[in-house]
UniProtKB/TrEMBL annotation:
Species per Swiss-Prot/TrEMBL record: Popillia japonica (Japanese beetle)
Keyword flag Ribonucleoprotein: yes
Keywords of the record: Ribonucleoprotein, Ribosomal protein
Record lineage: Eukaryota, Metazoa, Ecdysozoa, Arthropoda, Hexapoda
GO CC annotation terms, alphabetical: mitochondrial ribosome; ribonucleoprotein complex
Alphabetized Pfam families for the sequence: Ribosomal_S10
Domain Small ribosomal subunit protein uS10: 46-141
Keyword Ribosomal protein: yes
Source domain of life: Eukaryota
InterPro entries registered for this protein in UniProt: Ribosomal_mL48, Ribosomal_uS10_dom, Ribosomal_uS10_dom_sf
UniProt xrefs under SMART domains: Ribosomal_S10 (SM01403)
Protein name: Ribosomal protein S10p/S20e
Length: 174
């Protein structure tokens, strides 16, 4: 037990369920420690919103962005993701005959916030809950690498050129 306390005293940060707690550091002056917040901070969070109506989703993203700024929460970035096309089929009763066919587009937006205090996050979540329009879903997740990768649309021409170069290079070796 004493060994764990010694390790915690010498470490700069203690992580507990993705919440960063600040502790003493032996190599920094005391006045720097006094300036730090004693309230735990969350790391980077992504507020992901999804909906079928483009103008409503754009407006709601703006509301979230302004709400976070008014609460003095650091909005790091905000971006749109490529839409998804859904093909919905309805069938006639008790048959396999298609009655109607619908094409839907699902639009997605993300607002990224950083260093949110543990006292501000519940207030932000509650405000987002009360202002969420009908047909829009909201997810708040920890940021991961794959969220950055999915925001870019691959260039098909570039990919085909790279593939042809690889094929050409492998044919020369044979």
């Amino acid at each position: 037990m004493n060994q764990i306390r010694r390790i915690c005293q010498h470490s700069k940060y203690i992580y507990l369920n993705s919440v960063r707690l600040y502790s003493r550091d032996l190599y920094e002056p005391d006045y720097l420690e006094a300036m730090k917040s004693k309230i735990p901070l969350y790391d980077t969070l992504n507020i992901q919103i999804k909906g079928y109506d483009y103008p409503v989703l754009e407006s709601f993203q703006k509301i979230i962005h302004n709400l976070a700024k008014n609460m003095d929460i650091n909005v790091e970035d905000a971006w749109a993701l490529p839409h998804q096309d859904l093909n919905i089929l309805t069938y006639k009763p008790k048959s396999e005959i298609v009655d109607n066919q619908y094409g839907l587009k699902v639009f997605r937006r993300t607002v990224q916030v950083t260093d949110v205090s543990s006292t501000q996050l519940p207030l932000l979540i509650r405000a987002i809950e009360t202002t969420t329009p009908a047909g829009v879903t909201v997810n708040i997740v920890n940021h991961a690498e794959h969220y950055d990768e999915e925001r870019y649309i691959p260039d098909k021409e570039l990919l085909t050129l790279k593939q042809s170069l690889e094929d050409h290079g492998s044919s020369k070796k044979k």
